[in-house]
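Q: Joint fold for the lines below.
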Amino acid sequence: EVQLVESGGGLVQPGGSLRLSCAASRFTFSSYWMHWVRQVPGKGLVWVSGIEGDGSRTRYADPVEGRFTISRDNAENTLYLQMNSLRAEDTAVYYCTREGFDFWGQGTLVTVSS
Amino acid sequence: DVVLTQSPLSLPVTLGQPASISCRSSQSLVHSNGNTYLNWFQQRPGQSPRRLFYEVSNRDSGVPDRFSGSGSGTDFTLKISRVEAEDVGVYYCMQGTHWPKTFGQGTKVEIK
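A: Joint structure:
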């Protein structure tokens, strides 16, 4: 079955940076859009960003536009989210999910706090 | 942005009884290609979301047939014909027709 495994979360100070990774397996990674969705603990799901299979198109939610960069390495079957200028309100569990939102990883917690 | 409004936000249900969740969109979810990209997800406590339905009414593999999805345009419904204990969790609708993708606020289903 499709597997998505996120990593890279942790504690970071406001204004800091973090790069999340999502290792994908058991499907043709380069054929699918991939997305990041976040969830503040105890709150709802919020779409963050998406990238087309070949990396040619990217989309962002307004709150992260200009601060976050989504990218992918199709040779390594890995999705990334570079997060800069982090704010307290970016604190959340970040999930990677495949096009159609049919498969999700287990999530990685990002905490932005001094 | 497309706003999805779910109701109710909390749904206490007796085991074996039916449950229904509404999801209303601020604009039509019919894509220019004719498809309607409205998904339903279940998130059990401590777990990642799990997709139940795609394109309104297409049930994902492994989803019990006591779950059903219906609707069109701007009004959609998720129904559980007979609630079981394993159905406890939060249910979200999500639209994939328009950018940015958006989710409803979530409906918490609990057993009375």
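Q: Anything notable?
A: Chain A touches chain B through 19 residues (CB under 8 Å). The mean pLDDT of chain A is 98.
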